[in-house]
Amino acid sequence: MEEIKTPKRPIIYYMLIVVVAMLILNLFVMPRLMNRQFEETSYSEFLDMLENGKIKEVEIQEKQILFMDKSDPARYYVTGIMDDPDLINRLDAAGVTFTATIEQEASPWMTLLLGYVVPLLIFMVVGRLLMNSLMKRMGGEGLGGNMLTFGKSNAKIYVQSTDGIRFSDVAGEDEAKELLSEIVDYLHNPGRYAEIGANIPKGALLVGPPGTGKTLLAKAVAGEANVPFFSISGSDFVEMFVGMGAAKVRDLFKQANEKAPCIIFIDEIDTIGKKRDGLSGIGGNDEREQTLNQLLSEMDGFNASKGVIILGATNRPDSLDPALLRPGRFDRRIPVELPDLQGRVDILKVHAKKVKMGDNVDFDAIARMAVGASGAELANMINEAALRAVRAGRRFVTQADLEESVEVVIAGYQKKNAILSDKEKRIVAYHEIGHALVAALQSHSAPVTKITIIPRTSGALGYTMQVDEDEHNLMSKEEIENKIATLTGGRIAEDLIFHSITTGASNDIEQATKLARAMVTRFGMTEEFGMVALETVSNQYLGGDASLACSPDTSTAIDKKVIEVVRTQYEKAENLLKTHMKELNGLANYLYDHETITGDEFMGLLEQMKVPAEPAAAAEPTSAAAETTAPAEQTESKTE
Q1: Is 432 part of the annotated catalytic residue set?
Q2: Contact (Cβ atoms closer than 8 angstroms) between residue 432 and residue 596
Q3: Which of 403, 432, 481, 574 is catalytic?
Q4: Which of 47, 281, 598, 618 is most buried (CB neighbours < 10 A)?
């Protein structure tokens, strides 16, 4: 899609500004800089200085005499003229250099021009420029346009181009594309729907986490339909003056009706579409509510048969006003979720078309490592891999580049200048092996794929990565408990070997507590509370804000149960490590020497030590959770 650009100002506009600036410099600034400063003195003092030989040069004008002090050439004097016939002889006898000039009176027309006309023109031009700048900041069009037309929508208008965005450029969102393709078909063949009496939805709301491609999907709809595309953000409607947002909404729909069939895309619609609370007169945002009311009115007023389709995007659907979501306005809600395994593979392939890739690249393995990544993050991984290949002097991207790019996006860049002391490095090695060993000694746990003790810019001094072999969206109670036990393994290893604990387990503690609390309050996995929702989650697409919905006494009981769950798994992990101290020491020393080991190396060393490790494949879930607080396919335990 190509954006229709506003025509640039003609070159004569800028030439006029330059000419005015030069006039100001020549008429006012330069003369003041060039003029010499004179000190007034009497004619008798002038004669005394002349007789004493203190004068160097003299300029005789029609009404005054200018002269220079010989001892201080930077000082100039002026004195009145006198009827002195012997003046020339005195100057000649004193050996002074002298000249005579006759001042001509300036033309009255020139005086009028320079004294009044030019300053007035300069004042008008500068004032006009300042007013234009002020009006643009306030949302108007300057003095060149109508001062009352503040309510221009300022929407970016795109038209179809040869390299426009199509559905083929959007991967990993097949369900969303299928729902949107019906809108494209209607814009191409409206008579087909009118024949049967079907009405196309007036609006479709795209909801999902940031970076999943909501804006890209909207542009792809316009590209497939080959119609104009109006793009505007919700924040563009909110202005300083009350009523301007509503005026912009009216102007936007007016332009859309003139260019129908077309698509209106309002990004971050929650900015103006939040629920009305009735407090606008008591400190509320009256401007936002007026804008929302105008938007509701316009969506009711226009006829969808003209081919004007409204697309909105938000990652906070729970905050939208119910009147905006009712049928007849946004009739269709289209989820744009994080991609699954196959979706991640497809997204990686789409972005890899722009990069020279090696023959050994396995996108399936990269997609498994990048579980939970959005489309934007996957695109960033491809770009980071290309940058790493350039730094290494290669002309194509290898599998190692892609694997490192996944770690860069997840944990940050390697801190090459961060040097750990020998003691800290050994503590981190035992910490990470503690995680990995507990995971390997349990069933219902994802296999370990990588262990490293190289510090990262995210603050992690090391991490253990687990990647599940199969894609699944449910977690059983056993899987969550084993994940909590794995998270406690690092702290336990520190305590067993060094008889001391460090701050490195802070991230593990946070994740373990979050999982245990979710088991109690959201997933109903405890006998004490059963299937009772004790916690509500809002803003699910922005990380989720949890709030307890229970009495203080129940909250206290919840805290005790969470502590009990974590403590039980801590004791289980502690028993596992105590019975395998030999393996713990051997693996930690190996990691200390090599700094990074793969999952295959880790399992090979375990087999050599003859550890009776249970298979790591995930079992069929016995009691499933409707949603999870952490990705089911990958676990990453960081040492901070």
Answers
A1: yes
A2: no
A3: 432
A4: 618
